[in-house]
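Below is a filled-in request sheet from our internal design queue. Each sheet records the structural input a requester submitted and the sequence that came back. We keep these sheets so that new team members can see what a complete request looks like end to end.

REQUESTER: design group, bay 2
PRIORITY: normal
MODE: inverse folding
CHAIN LENGTH: 150
BACKBONE (tokenized):
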């Protein structure tokens, strides 16, 4: 599902410089406007794009453990946005995606199933995710699918 500022969905999956605990100014702004729900993961691969990562989705069975598909998981955090429309508006501007920006965009915001990792079980939730939309042919893949919090 493509992005829409009027969506009732208030969950966001972050996997790079926007993760809670990152020193990046936009991560701090997002932290001030959201509530952390904990660790989560999504099927895909992570690539280094300079000082930040890009997530590319992969086709895989959604409930298959990582051991069955190598490192075809990207780990990150799930947050609940307090004012989704306002926060997603500035995040779209930051990621330069949506109708206000010319295509091709570097990222697309999609509503996707993610796996929230709890103490005793994993729960499937629908969350907004920024997906890298350009070629990864010359980019370094981040083995293990984890971008360090810095």
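RETURNED SEQUENCE:
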């Amino acid at each position: 599902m493509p992005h829409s500022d009027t969506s009732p969905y208030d969950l966001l999956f972050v996997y790079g410089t926007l993760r809670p605990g990152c020193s990046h100014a936009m991560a701090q702004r997002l932290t001030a406007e959201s509530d952390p729900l904990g660790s989560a993961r999504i099927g895909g691969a992570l690539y280094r794009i300079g000082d930040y990562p890009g997530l590319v989705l992969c086709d895989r069975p959604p409930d298959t453990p990582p051991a069955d598909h190598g490192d075809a998981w990207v780990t990150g955090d799930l947050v609940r946005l307090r004012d989704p429309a306002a926060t997603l508006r500035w995040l779209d501007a930051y990621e330069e995606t949506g109708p206000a920006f010319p295509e091709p965009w570097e990222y697309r915001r999609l509503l996707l199933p993610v796996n929230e990792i709890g103490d005793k079980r994993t729960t499937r939730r629908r969350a907004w995710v920024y997906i890298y939309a350009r070629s990864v042919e010359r980019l370094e893949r981040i083995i293990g699918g984890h971008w360090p919090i810095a």
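SHEET NOTES:
- Residues 90 and 96 are 9 Å apart (CA to CA).
- Residues 84-95 form the longest helix (12 residues).
FILED BY: M.R.
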